[in-house]
Design a protein that fits this description.
about 300 residues; mainly alpha; 13 helices; about 0% strand; globular
Length: about 300
């Protein structure tokens, strides 16, 4: 599949998944819902691997890396953001999560010795500036209370967990483990971790039988998890964690567009400026560098 199409699929699926998450609110605790979601996603991928003849037997060391991916990308990342959502607005959370593009650049340099692409760094600055413009009203409302600082710390840690998961995916590629199989097993580990943490915390394993909950749970598991993560981690392995993570900057743009249609979101001049900056950042990040012909 072309890289541009993979990027578009990730942005559209994850940018629209916020609507599905909203329908998950109810009697089922958030972390339990996360466990249900990734358990279902893992089962779907396992079934696909079995039907298509993809091998699922790997070494103990490979399972160790997939366990790390499951904990960081499919469990702790989500847990930290669900907790921080109690103290921070969605706008602030979107901006904090977009910092993953910068974290991926730094972690790639630290752990893999990768050179930081100047174009990606410049694009990240444009994207963060754009998101700040879009969500400035929410930023202005934030105070320096202990709850806000706690939420900030949790969400930053969650973003860093996601960044570590991205780099683990790069490591899995060097071990010749395909994305589909690593996701199938990694999501299973993430789901089990979420359910174990829920049990230790005393959460109730309720089942919400409302159609809105069950349908949104299935759609999140299939599209946001199975298809979304498969496309995204393929991008990470193909174009690098730094460039792939920049797609996170566009998620709020899609979410705001859907909110305009379904929830009556009102655009401001500052928001329009922010969107322009975000799009400019994407062009900088994704355009191919000029090829110099030596004579």
């Amino acid at each position: 599949m072309p890289t541009g199409l993979l990027y578009l699929i990730v942005v559209l699926i994850w940018g629209s998944s916020w609507i599905g998450i909203a329908y998950q609110a109810g009697p089922v605790p958030a972390l339990v819902s996360i466990g249900y979601r990734f358990l279902l996603s893992s089962a779907l991928l396992m079934l696909f691997c079995t039907v298509s003849g993809r091998p699922l037997r790997f070494s103990l060391r490979d399972h160790g890396w997939m366990l790390l991916q499951g904990l960081s990308l499919f469990c702790l990342n989500y847990l930290m953001f669900y907790w921080s959502a109690k103290d921070l607005t969605s706008g602030l959370l979107a901006i904090i999560f977009s910092i993953m593009s910068v974290m991926n650049l730094a972690n790639g340099a630290i752990f893999f010795g990768q050179r930081i692409d100047r174009r990606v760094a410049i694009g990240a600055v444009f994207g963060l500036a754009g998101l700040s413009c879009v969500f400035w009203p929410e930023i202005a409302k934030a105070d320096a209370s202990s709850a806000t600082l706690t939420g900030l710390g949790l969400s930053l840690f969650g973003t860093y967990c996601a960044s570590i998961g991205n780099l683990v995916s790069v490591k899995l590629k060097t071990r010749n483990i395909p994305v589909i199989q690593s996701n199938a097993i990694g999501m299973g580990y993430g789901a089990l971790a979420a359910l174990i943490i829920s049990a230790v915390a005393g959460s109730t394993f309720a089942v919400d039988t409302r159609p809105s909950y069950l349908i949104s749970l299935f759609l999140l598991a299939l599209f946001a998890s199975v298809i979304g993560f498969s496309c995204y981690l393929t991008l990470v392995q193909r174009i690098g964690a730094g460039r792939a993570a920049y797609s996170a900057v566009l998620f709020p743009v899609v979410a705001l567009t859907i909110s305009t249609i379904l929830e009556g979101y009102r655009w401001t001049g500052l928001a329009v400026l922010g969107i322009v900056l975000v799009l400019c950042g994407n062009l900088i990040v994704l355009r191919r560098p000029a090829v110099t012909i030596r004579r």
